[in-house]
Amino acid sequence: MQERVLDKNKLAKTEDWVGNNIAVTCPVCGKVYVVSGALHPEGRKCPDCGESVGHVDKKGENAKLYWE
Q1: Strands 16-18 and 52-56
Q2: Largest CA distance in the chain
Q3: How many CB atoms lie within 10 A of CB 29?
Q4: 37 lies in which domain range?
């Protein structure tokens, strides 16, 4: 499994982070999707291919993206 830990201060152009919400691009299919720490406490799968999972904690302090 591959994992990318997001850094608030070094986001890619295809990423965003506000509070406990992140926007990421699926590394498998390229779909951009939003993950909320409040709405998706267990993380959220890519809504297009389901192959990646974005996760951000409820406090908005840590975020990651992982995929096979």
Answers
A1: unpaired
A2: 28
A3: 13
A4: 2-67
**What is the total count of domains within the chain?**
1
Q: Is 35 helix (H, G, I), strand (E, B) or coil?
A: strand
The reported pTM is 0.92
6 Cβ contact partners less than 8 Å away, ≥ 6 residues apart:
15, 17, 22, 24, 63, 64, 65
Encoded tokens for 9: 């201060």
> What's the rounded Cα separation, in Å, for the pair 21 and 37?
6
Nearest to 34 by CA among 42, 23, 45: 23
Q: Quick check: 2 and 61 in contact, CB under 8 A?
A: no
pLDDT, tens digit, for every residue of 16-64?
999 999 999 999 999 999 999 999 999 999 999 999 999 999 999 999 9
